[in-house]
## 1
Amino acid sequence: MPLAIYHEAMSATDRSNEGKACDAVLRSIEAREGAVRRDLIFPEKTHSVGPVELVCTLGAERFAFEHTRIEPFAGHIQLEAEAERHFKPITDRVAGQLPPESRFELDVPAGAMLGLNDRATRPIQDALARWILDAAPGLPTAPLGRYILPIQKVTPPGVPFAVSLHRWPRDGFLGALAGRLGLST
């Protein structure tokens, strides 16, 4: 059964919204200047000079547009960039081995493995996968939309931070395991 990890990675929708935001600003400038965009270049896509979303000409002037995301907390963008590398191996290791009638969620403190290289993360990933496989079958199943309280934080052997694992009926969920990066430290 495939595993899905919930992390706050930038989705295709986020990237699409960046383009839509740049387009909305450009349409406003077009209306103000009475000119139509031309000679469009997308430097980030073509790896050209300048890390901007769009360069174009309006009338006789050249414009460059960049959409910068604001981090909700320090290190968030780096966390997004590293999340798949850190957590997909865990979901891959437990794929097809969890009870198929259930959905599981692993809560991990945000930034728990931020900045760690692959050599440092592999033993943690292995330890988390072993712990999930051991703990998952015995977990009580919570009603959809609820957690079993109190939430139990555990520091599995070989893992340098506390995590929690939750179980629900699989109804309507695609992946057997989801991970959630918590904001606790």
Note: The beta strands are 37-41, 54-58, 61-65, 102-109, 164-169, 177-182.
## 2
Amino acid sequence: MAAQRDIRRRIVSVQNTRKITKAMEMVAAARLRRAQQRIESTRPYALNMLEFIGQLVAYLQVDLSLHPLLRPHPAIKKVAIIALTADRGLAGAFNSNIIHRALALVDSYTAAGVDHDLVILGRKGLSTVRFMGYRFDKAYLDVTERTAFLEAQALTNGVIRRYANDQIDRVHLVFNRFKSPMEQFVTEQVILPIQEEITDLYIPKDARAYMDFLFEPSAEEILADLLPSYVEISIYRAILEGMASEHGARMTAMRNASEAAEKMIDELTLAMNRARQWSITQEILEVVAGADALSG
């Protein structure tokens, strides 16, 4: 009887856990739908802005070495690495994959004698970095969908100012790119200098021969305003991609946990039935043995 009570207690415990994982799966699915809508509206904007910048640079025949955000630094002495993790867990390997890629990047630069500033977004990434003993420069915590753009602005202003002043020589962004609820890919993107991204988007050098535009204000001023905006929208888009990936990873993890709980409940139910059968058989044997003793 004691064994049956223990098994029944475990079944109730697993059933309660399954209710929680089911509820978390439904919440993650609802949040994922909203996050997907934001990504679908942000991706075309970022890509079109990048294409327009490339065309504008080609039209103006700009010397990329003249603008501070387009100019690559001749020597890489210090880099900034921005890792976009989450504040909560229970999302499978979502956070660990990002932070391990970022720390591998840190290790590779350290081995090459290059200094680094590690910027962490999310409590899970921060706790891992602290646990592993790595140095970090700044952390942004409790970032929500409402505050994501403000955090993107803060990150953009910091890295642009330091890059333009030659305090850092390259900026890496490490995040999870969303493809589907089942698939998210850890992505490493160099957002400064911008030159590396617009090189393949040039239109022909004789663009002025068949393109005639009037710019107000001047085209150079428009370009100077667009470049920081592109860095800002790139970081904002990466944050949104990370949020959607987090919801997708959590939904998948909770679904797997629910399925594992159902399997465990079936196994425990079978074990309880076997224990009940053994108990009944034992009682029958005791009754038969008693009857045989009395008849003898």
Note: DSSP finds seven helices and five strands in the chain.
## 3
Amino acid sequence: MFDFNSLEKPYFIAEIGINHNGDLQIAKRLIDASFGCEWGCVKFQKRNPDVAVPEHEKNKPRETPWGTMTYLEYKHRIEFGKKEYDYINRYCAEKPIDWTVSVWDLDSLKFALQYDLKFLKIPSAMLTHKELLKEAAASGVPILLSSGMSTLEEIDAAVAIVSAKAKSYALLHCTSTYPAPPKELNLRVIPALRQRYGCTIGYSGHEHDLEPTVIAVALGAKIIERHITLDHSMWGTDQASSLEVHAMSLLRRRVANIEDMLGSSEKKVTESEMPIRKKLRGV
């Protein structure tokens, strides 16, 4: 079983989300990029739009590359079904690379459990969906919670539900703005969450830059999730706050040696300092 608490190095999740725009070929290219950049997992979003889309949003008109349609029609238009996910399941196994989904409703949870996924994600928007939390935790699949736009009290309640039944769980610090302003990232929350909940803490970033994610790892984040895209100019609300492929590779390299650089809290003379010490001090 996948155990979040056993992670020694940051585990990278490439959030494809809905940036595939309903096109399986785009999804394949993003899977290829994630594998090539040595990220550990690709993640999609799974919804039953009839259930997950709020009533006040369903009939709002939306301009799309496929013409003007209601927001509900648009969500159905880009949603992958069993045919696409069966293909994704096979394609990722061939790489190999892990894959998973965020589940936005109970129907999607049931759908996701058809596959042998290492973990399931509960998105920030659904952190207060108590029934979904209970059913996901009871599934036996490890659970990853995202905490964007949530109060500590809401996180407390969600963690209490999940920790009571889940075999393994972890929590992501997140600011649910796309893109997130640097002054609202509050990265010091990462060690505070680890102290409060005693579980593995990660970071789901929606900012433009790479530096906040690097800092998050230095502050103790063991899971890194970033949205990814083939091109910022592609149509879709999440494209602008996503990493292009070259940035995925840069970020992976920038955090590679952070654990080695942080070292330990023990102050000692290092091995490379010994000959310098002997030369300059004679001892």
Note: The mean pLDDT is 96.
## 4
Amino acid sequence: MADAVLLSELGVGLPIFLLGPAIAMFFGNTQENEGIKKAFSFSYFYSPIFLSIILGLAILFIPFNRNNNSIAPFFEALKMINGALTILACLILSLQLKLKALKGLLPLFIISAIIQMWFQPFIAHVQANLYGLSLIQTQVLVLNSSMPSAVIGPVFASRYNCVPDTASALVMAHIVLSIAMIPAVFYLMSA
């Protein structure tokens, strides 16, 4: 479980929150985007997500007594917010979904599903064998790499006007496909 948490937070969570907004800013259709394309801009470093990551990392090293009656409610509130993050991201994803033909998205969906749910786990499995990881570490790595797209991606796409409809449709399709793909990938990579 510790391996899964470490891989998930450092290998997935941190890059999503550091690179996701920067990529969406660059390719999005907003005022901030124009400044980035014309000349290098520091607007990304002033974005709320980047500032919250830096603040979170800074607070991490402050030794708090979590049993203190004046601080304990604050940490409980943070736990509740953390628990609600996934639900809120899924709610935003569902609100962004629109009934539209998947014909135009089908090639993009097939290519992204092959890369994300077959190629990534295969590369993770090969690298795990090269590094001599244990069976459980290899399985955790393969399972993490075969997960569907993060539901927070369409939130970034929506915020920076970076084709949010397409991002939402692809993430939802990946989530539905993962019901069959994750067990299949795990079975094939374990054999």
Note: The helical segments are 2-27, 31-38, 48-60, 72-96, 106-131, 135-145, 153-159, 164-190.
